[in-house]
């Protein structure tokens, strides 16, 4: 029988909490401005619905469980398309509607994703937003983390920056998993350890800039310098989200409040930070009100 490692489930649940928490803020900020965010008051009703980040992370974990860790790209592409067709109202990015519809209609994923954006491929943050549990899965082997993170990313995102972003998130989750039960890695060390395994890219430059930021850097300044996802690209999202996670590796609750304060693509920055932090901490320490407020996940293994 297939078992999903505890750290993988922890990462997935942390990702889902971050996604649902962040997504809930979009409407509040639009309607009421930032007063509630600054006061850290978040209504627990209506339900905090998770979005595409969680829907795709769940698909990815199921693929890992079935394949034993080696991604079957053809099957994964079809699974992403099927999850999309089942529920299209999960906040998918504009180009992903087209990609997933066409894959679902039977077009080869390689051609569909390579043809996006005039042949450059998408460099959106969608390959990264779902990648943390994969890092937890392969935590014992960082080469496998990088390889499998890139393989899952390529199924939807052709641009090397999108793939580097996915590798960065998976590596961070792997390092968080490896630190379970041990001392808390220092933020600069943690970020440098991610950067040194990345290909030359804007993502790597961003993670290096993040690693060098003074400890007392404000979240606003970091979000402005690194980018908090306003452009929804890998390089504009992942260095910031990892900087937030790396500073809160022992406190998921504080880490998510901190991450959301940088605004931008808040469901995805919080999903990434949540997936990384929870790979070390789990989600049990989150307030009971959060557990009650967040939309439950379907069973990870359906067989
Ligand atoms: Mg989303």
Automatic annotation (TrEMBL):
Q: Which GO terms describe its molecular function?
A: hydrolase activity; metal ion binding
- Names of the cofactor(s): Mg(2+)
Q: Which UniProt keywords apply?
A: Hydrolase, Magnesium, Metal-binding
InterPro entries reported in the protein's UniProt record: ADP-ribosylglycohydrolase, Ribosyl_crysJ1, Ribosyl_crysJ1_sf
Q: How is the cofactor bound?
A: Binds 2 magnesium ions per subunit.
- Residues annotated as binding Mg(2+) are 51-53, 265, 267-268
User: What's the superkingdom here?
Assistant: Bacteria
* The protein, known as: Hydrolase
Query: Upper lineage ranks?
Result: Bacteria, Bacillati, Actinomycetota, Actinomycetes, Kitasatosporales
């Amino acid at each position: 029988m297939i078992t999903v490692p505890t750290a993988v489930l922890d990462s997935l649940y942390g990702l889902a909490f971050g996604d649902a928490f962040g997504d809930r803020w979009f409407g509040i900020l639009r309607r009421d401005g930032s007063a509630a965010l600054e006061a850290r008051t978040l209504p627990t009703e209506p339900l905090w619905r998770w979005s595409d980040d969680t829907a795709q992370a769940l698909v990815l974990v199921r693929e890992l469980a079935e394949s034993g860790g080696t991604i079957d790209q053809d099957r994964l592409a079809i699974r992403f398309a099927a999850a999309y067709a089942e529920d299209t109202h999960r906040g998918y990015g504009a180009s992903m509607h087209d990609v997933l519809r066409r894959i679902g209609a039977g077009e080869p994923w390689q051609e569909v994703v390579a043809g996006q954006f005039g042949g450059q491929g998408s460099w959106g943050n969608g390959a990264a937003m779902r990648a943390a549990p994969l890092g937890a899965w392969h935590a014992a082997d960082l080469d496998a983390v990088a390889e499998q993170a890139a393989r899952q990313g390529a199924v939807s995102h052709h641009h090397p920056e999108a793939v580097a972003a996915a590798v960065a998130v998976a590596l961070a989750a792997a390092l968080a998993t490896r630190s379970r039960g041990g001392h808390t890695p220092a933020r600069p060390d943690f970020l440098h350890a991610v950067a040194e395994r990345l290909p030359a890219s804007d993502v790597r430059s961003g993670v290096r800039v993040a690693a060098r930021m003074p400890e007392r850097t404000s979240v606003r300044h970091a979000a402005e310098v690194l980018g908090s996802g306003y452009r929804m690209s890998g390089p504009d999202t992942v260095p910031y989200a990892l900087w937030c996670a790396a500073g809160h590796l022992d406190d998921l609750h504080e880490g998510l409040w901190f991450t959301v304060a940088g605004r931008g693509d808040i469901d995805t920055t919080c999903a990434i930070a949540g997936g990384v932090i929870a790979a070390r901490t789990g989600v049990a320490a989150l307030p009971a009100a959060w557990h009650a407020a967040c939309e439950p996940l379907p069973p990870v293994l359906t067989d």
